[in-house]
Amino acid sequence: MPPARFGDILNAMDIPASQQLLVLYSREQIEKRVAELGDAITRDYAGESVIMIGVLKGSAIFLADLARSVHIDCTFDFVAVSSYKKGRTTSGAVKLTKDLDEPIEGKHVIIVEDILDTGITLGYLRKIFMQHHPKSLKIAACLDKPARRIEPIEADYVGFSIPNQFVIGYGMDYAEKFRNLPDICILPPDFPL
Ligand code: IMP
Ligand code: MG
Q: Are 28 and 53 in contact (CB under 8 A)?
């Protein structure tokens, strides 16, 4: 894994230059994989309309890229949930803090999420969206951590399946920071924050 090219960003955050983030997936690798997911979605929904529902905030960058790589009639909506408390551990409880703007009844829905981790968030969202009777409901996750699963749930489109490591960048945060890193990086356990 090459050391990250983020000296300036870390500097701006007052993090010592000796600290290095390791790139797990580079922007080039992400771009290639998102294009493949976009092709798969384009094939699977040929001739149909789809609503992509992004889970704020982590999925915003993935959704922006994925949506531009699908060549079908597509609209967006966003929900927000509170579940992941500040830091690296989840509370287990999920609450919807921003609901859908548009009805999804009778529509093809793809939930777009940054990471499928324990599955608690997506399990909750799938349950409440199914109550609205969409025509179909699928999940696209940029990353999947299968070893962490508590809820039995799988994504239909997965960017990369990863081991149990805490990652940041490409929309994903640690205490709201690092979302703007263009690569997906590993946050070392002893990182000074
Ligand atoms: P789940 O409900 O446990 O599946 O949690 C999913 C959410 O936890 C994701 O949408 C992320 O916001 C957050 N999350 C899980 N793992 C990581 C990580 O490695 N880095 C940043 N956020 C994470
Ligand atoms: Mg999230």
A: no
